[in-house]
Amino acid sequence: YAQEMTVSGKVSDAAGGEIAGVNVVVKGTTRGTTTNDKGEYSITVEKGKTLTFSYIGYITKEVVANATILNLSLTAEATALNEVVVTALGISREKRSLAYSITEVSGTNMTAAREANLGNALAGRVAGVNVSKIASGPAGSSRVIIRGNKSLQGPNQPLYVIDGIPMDNNNFGQAGLWGGSDEGDGLSSINPDDIESVTVLKGANAAALYGSRATNGVINVTTKRGTKRKGIGVEFGSNYVFEKFNDLSDLQKSYGSGAYADGVAVKPSTQTQAYEWGDDSWGPKYDNSQYVGFDGKMRPYAYQGDNFSRFYQTGHAFTNNLALSGGNENQNFRASVTNLNSTTIIPNSGYDRINISLSTNAKFGKRLTLDAKVLYSEEKAKNRPNVSDSPGNAIQSLWRTPGSYNVLDYYGDPNKPGAIPAGTDANSLSVFGKQVGEEFQQASNNWGQNPYWVTHQFIKTDKKNRFITSGSLKYQLTDWLYVSGRVGLDKYQRRAEGLTPEGTGYQRGGARSMGTWNVQEINAEYMVGVNKDFGKIGVNAFVGGNRMRWKYDFVNIYGNGFNVQFFPAINNVKGKSWDFNYQERGINSLFGSAEISYDGFLYLNATARNDWFSVLNPESNNTLYPSVGTSFVFSDAFKNLPSWLSYGKLRASWAQVGNATNEAYSTNLTYSLNGNPHLGYAMASFSQAMGNNGTIPNPNLMPLTSTEKEFGIDFRLFNNKVAVDFTYYDQQTTNDILNATISKASGFGQTYVNVGKMQNRGIELLLTVTPLKSANLNWDVSLNLAKNNNKVKSLIGNSNELVMEEPRTRNAYIKNIVGQPFGMITGRVQKMSPDGQPVFYNDGRPVGSAGYEVIGNGIAKLTGGLTNAFNYKGIDLSFLVDFKWGGDILSGTNMRLTQWGVSKQSLQGREGEAPLTVTGVTQEGTEYKPFTKTLSPREAFDYWQSVGGEADAVTPMYLYDASFIKLRQLTLGYTFPKRLLEKTPLQNLSISFVGRNLAILFKNIDNVDPESTYSNGNSQGFDYFGFPSTRSYGFNLRATF
Amino acid sequence: CDTKELHDLNINPQALNQVNLNLIFTSAELGIASNGTSGDNRYIDWRTNIGMCAYAIQQLANAGGGIAPGDKYTVNAETNAAPFDFTYNDQLKNLAEILKQSGPGGFGEGKYLNMRQAARILRAFSFARLTDFYGNIPYSEANKGTEGIFFPKYDTQDAVYADLLKELDEASSALSTSNPDEGFAAADFIYKGDIAKWKKFGYSLMLRLAMRISNVDAAKAATYVTKAAAGGVFASNAENVWVAMADGPGEWTNQNGISRAFDPGDGGQPAYLSATLVNFLKGTNANSAADDDPRLMIISGGIGDWTAAGYTPITVDPLKQKGMPNGYDQPMLDKLEGQAVILPKTYSRINVKMLQDSDPYMIMNYGEVEFLLAEAIERKIGTGISGTAQSHYEAGVKASMQMYTPYDASLTVSDAAVTAYLKTYPYGTTRPALEMIGEQMWVNKFFNWWEAWNDWRRTGFPKLTAINYPGNVTNGTIPVRLRYPTNEVAGNPNYQSGATMPDELTTKVWWDK
After folding, report:
1. A870 in the same domain as A857
2. Is B254 in Cβ contact with A678 (below 8 Å)?
3. Judgement on whether residues A488 and A537 belong to the same structural domain of the protein
4. Which of A545, A691, A747 lies at the smallest CB-CB distance from B92?
């Protein structure tokens, strides 16, 4: 009969402070206790049994009960020396063995103050991860770039892997030159409440095992799972936030609706005038006299107050999450359901999501383990806002509204907002050329919508149902040899519906569309591995294979006009048409990895992977990607190091990753039939160019290669109170697969080519300091910084420049230029005389340059974030400040605000305002003559039209430094002490105030947010009437039972 | 791991490796009507044919709304880019593929004998349109993207014209009724495979292009005018080139792009006629209907409201027809008229009967051919043209007045009305003969406004008064070409060395002297 004894003692942290609430359990039993406020415990145990000491945030310690007093200290996880992280293929490794930089972000960072999109939640968190928040609203997509853009064009975003299953992060459409909306991406399906942790594999080295698709790094998401525990754990979370419009505008308030007539600014004196030019703010100074509005009504010619606050509402987001988990030695499970309901600041728009997840792990006998998981999500987006160009863009209409209007004047019919109200007189209807019930246009320009018509009459909904499921089995043949297999399926259906209502300015008959996407990706993977120590030498190696199949089909039905009026059903459309698109892709892979360690301080890793791509022709469809790396923990190797050095490691690695980024069916020229025969005559053309912008196929395409070298040092000082993780990398992409924009005179818009070289070199620094640490008070500061230098080294053939995107203002281009960083912003500039004088027309307008000149770059060079976390007796305060430095943004919004007479800039040169004087030269033939002119108000008007115009633009005038510092996140929370909860079923209860995007601490651009780029595509740096800046704040509650 | 199953994934189940080239020819035929296969066939018409040409040539006017750089001589990127962006990529791409695959080494080598020649004629038609807009254009290296030429060099306009005329000569003479049909008749929805008509189209187009260069290369012009006359040009309206359009199924490809561009239900261009045109059609005496051009109330649908619900004329009285002056904005019109002008109640509009979605699209007509012959005789260019300048002029006027029935059966002009008109305005007497020919060609090319613009640039007729709207970029002169698209300027390395410079609206193209 075993001897029972009482063991007592004190549990402290590394600094000597006592830790209260540590779970002390007799291993293998349910017997346990917790430490008191002084860190003391007492427990009865059979001698020789093991005691387990565990506490959140600390490494669990096991101690054999062989003495009656057992004092011990726990090591905090954040500074744990044998941290384990999830690396490529879901393999857990000791962090110390890694030859490359890897960063882990805990799931709790994503659930306090929330972003609907996982990508946006990573902003400022990880050195070298550049997140661009897209000005497209909360349901929009994100742009996450790790260590710079690696491909001139290909997808530069990382591979997302959910519990070992690659996920399709397909984009459903972005706003472009002609407007449109951000239709979201795949990432939004992920529920932050299900995330245990996110590890970011930054370099090619880290990701080499994933092969081709990891060229741009990998973001590995590990979802929560059940753990061994007593009974069923219940976790409840509730989060409620308000979203508020953040008004950054600074507009003129002294001139209203009007135009120049015969050189004089006049306000509309007839309804026709008001309708023709009433939405420009070029009228005379407010004088409180009466003027005629577009609707024929008289109103005082005076500033009518802030229209933004009248139009934008408070958005709400309410998230509730309930999770159950349980488990024993052999089996565990976790089930969770989360519901998100949100509305945005734009009336009638919002985003809802339901996530359901179920996971289980089981051990059968000693050798077989099973891991299975189902993640289901249902997303509904309502009225994603149109941004960029004007059609259906309420945001733009609002910006344009002259100060002499109250935007509620546009409301129209109260029962059909934005529509011409009943009772409108015949004369007005004649001016509009419209009927009651049609769009109540505030101006004759059919393309600038009534904002209420947009928000209340347009329909733009989409719904996505998605399953991500996986199952894996691992069989331990011996204690050092295993085989494993995993199958994962990511499958979703998306249905998008659109209605342009009857009576809309630019599409009076109305239009309807309904599209359905079916996408699935299946990965099947197997591995055989060994894990064995031979004395001081350890071997961890495996070989395996993967088979990926991706399938996509898209059917869209659409039509314009309706057979029966005001019945917007798809079956009621006239001239019904349809589109069909189908694609399949596959990759077969073999891979292997070996790690040899010596005495726990020297590690050598090597991996190799070979991928075969379906999208390339068999002659050039595969490539082998190797990687090697070493890690040397010198603090363990040398015993006589100074005591202030707690830990030190040097690492170096080299790797290649390749990719085939071209679409399916893009290697061979084929023909297809036009879906709609004309008058019964069938028609054919190139499959690749049924429309205007085809891509020339290329049979000789081969995989691109990204080669990366990485060196780093990690060290920790002063008993782990200071930790530094520093990395230098040098990456080069060769044979980039580019869907290059070519001259349309070639007959096509693009061509697939293997061209070019691009380089990214940079440094990353993660500095973590714990200035204060005691039982009651804890203060952690973490700073991450990354600087990336990108350079395009060569392009297609003898061409030194390739054009990418053009903004709606049509006076700029994003280009890739040899010798310059990726994505230069070029624009029309003012022509200069040979001696450097600006050239003007005789009326004072600038003469534009013939071509485009480099004016900036839309990608920040330096990015980073600073996190501060204080914790005092259950109260925690933390904030994240993030910043970007060194990028530019060309603001089409500001160009237009001036052209419309809305901006303060447009004041200069008006009657009674500061005069506009230009100085330079005029040109006659080859002669240049000195020229100085103070412009008349009418000439000043033409000047302002011109500088942001298409012909003689001066784009540098609207190029802004996009650098910013933002208070990205703030949380202030309180965790109730356990003793207060003793009499309740609650085990933990915490409540916090949370805020996101609370303040822009520094910016350099007028009127808009420096993060106003409206697309998540490769062309960054164009602002044009994107979703406005918002801030959100609210409360977060978490309880466990 | 490199399995057949993997390779098979890359076979597009919707595509063919080879195709009946006649099917591509049908695409090209639809394409010549505003580039109808590109997915937005109103794009060119809206932006360029109307937005620039119809206003610049003063057949339409615009006081606001739509895209109208031609009314005020301003710059609009889409207006400039549309023909370039939508021609190489549309019918020219398809025509180039037909010629490549039916030529040496192609999978259709030796077949499609007549269709191939018809394709060359459509190609010449399309390239002429491009070079007339811009001047120098990618030509010899154009549409060779599939052969690896991604940034073609520019050819000078005289080189382009020389080759187009040679092409028309070869193609027209190679067309032969003794060649097998090989599916051409079933694919050709313009002429249903009528080879005689195709030949006439080839020679008529040759006549147009030859006359176009007559100011700068008289010898070559004479050579080809002579060849055209000998080869046989259009002899009746039955030979006019129309591209039939349809109500559907797709509005972007099947409907008439011009009609769509004016569609009041689609945010389109306002359809107000220019004062210049209306005044010409109203004749010498504005207070008499007797001296009116019979086309006045064909082209004008009257003054009235046109909405999606329908057209409600306020007046169709010819005496009350009124055009809008070019170069005016709303405040200027209010001042001009001395009152608040409600546009639809004030100005005449294009006849809605010619703006139906299914109305056919005019490519080239017999009337123009007669005017060109009249001009050739007057200017003694070429030989072998039978008849007199006057007989051709009068035949041209008659043809021109009587060509509207394909739009709507009611749009007829009687022989008597034609005769009366010719009597009221005797040839060479009312005004100098060449001016009268020029004016008639101008009216004749209503809808083909880019062609009216070409003719005006070459002949100077009709005599137009330029406007000088504040902020215009031409110093108050009527634009004489388009600027190249921004993506060419920004992206094609051959632009700086080969394009027509300076790249402005005021730079004349080679034949414009």
Report:
1. yes
2. yes
3. yes
4. A747
Going by C-alpha positions, the residue among A212, A150, A220 that lies closest to residue A657 is: A212
Q: Which CATH number fits the domain that encloses residue A12?
A: 2.60.40.1120
Tell me the β-bridge partners of A133.
Answer: A142
Instruction: Phi first, then psi: give them for residue A246, nearest 5 degrees.
Output: -105, 100
Euclidean distance between the first and the last CA atom of chain B, given in angstroms as a whole number: 68
* Mean pLDDT over each residue of chain A, to the nearest integer: 87
Is residue A78's pLDDT more than 50?
A: no
Domain tally, chain A:
3
Q: Tell me: do A425 and A451 sit in the same domain.
A: yes
Q: CATH assignment of B21-205+471-498?
A: 1.25.40.390
Q: Note whether A619 and A601 are within 8 A (CB).
A: no
Return the minimum-mean-pLDDT range out of A387-391, A664-668, B173-177.
A387-391
Asked if the structure places residue A920 within a domain, the reply is no
Task: Name the domain boundary from A401, A422, A456.
Answer: A456
CA A551 to chain CA mean position, Å: 24
Measure Cα distances from A424 to A166, A296, A420, A431 in Å. 58, 10, 7, 11
pLDDT, position B213: 98
- Give tens-digit pLDDT for A236-278: 999 898 999 999 999 999 999 999 988 899 999 889 889 887 6
CA–CA separation, B350 and B59 (whole Å)? 10
Give B-chain residues touching A815 at CB under 8 angstroms: 490-491
Question: Based on the domain organization, do A804 and A750 belong to the same domain?
Answer: yes
Residue A552 and residue A500 share a domain: yes
Q: How far is A431 from chain B (nearest CA, A)?
A: 6
Q: Do A346 and A391 belong to one domain?
A: no
Report residues of chain B scoring pLDDT below 70.
Answer: 36-39, 265, 267, 308-309
> Distance, in angstroms, between B470 CA and closest chain A CA?
7
3-state helix, strand, coil in chain A (%, to 5): 10, 50, 40
C-alpha torsion sign, points B111, B115, B118, B122: negative
| Cβ-based neighbours of B156, under 8 Å, separated by 6 or more | B136, B510
**What is the spatial distance between Cα A163 and Cα A359, in angstroms, rounded to a whole number?**
11
Query: Shortest CB distance from B15 goes to which of A687, A741, A851?
Result: A687
Residue A227: partners with Cβ closer than 8 Å, 6 or more residues away: A325, A327, A332
Summarised one tens digit per residue, pLDDT across range B387-413 is 999 999 999 999 999 999 999 999 999
Beta-carbon-side half-sphere exposure of residue A30 (alpha carbons within 13 Å): 5
Interface contact flag, B152 A588, Cβ < 8 Å: no
Tell me the DSSP string of B83-120.
HHHHHIIIIIHHHHHHHHHTSTTSTTTT--HHHHHHHH
- How many Å lie between the alpha carbon of B454 and the closest alpha carbon of chain A? 22
Domains of chain B, residue spans? 21-205+471-498, 273-350
* Chain B residues near residue A691 by CB distance under 8 angstroms: 38-39
Is the domain of A463 the same as that of A422? no
> How many angstroms from the chain centroid is the CA of residue B430?
28
From A521's Cα to the closest Cα of chain B, the distance in A is 14
Mutate to test the interface with B, among A178, A292, A678 (most CBs of B within 10 A): A678
Give the DSSP per-residue string, A640-690: T--TTEEEEEEEEEEEEEEE--SPTT-SS--EEE-SS-BTTB--EEEGGGS
Residue A750 has pLDDT above 80, yes or no: yes
Q: Is this complex scored with an ipTM above 0.90?
A: yes
User: Which candidate from B7, B149, B471 shows the least CB-CB separation from A746?
Assistant: B149
Residues in chain B: 513
For residue A603, tell me if it sits in a domain.
yes
The H or E element spanning position B55 is: helix B55-56
Of A54, A75, A96, the residue that ends a domain is A75
Q: B22 and B186 in contact (C-beta within 8 Å)?
A: yes
**Residue numbers of the domain that contains A68:** 4-75
Contact flag B88-A744 (C-beta cutoff 8 Å): yes
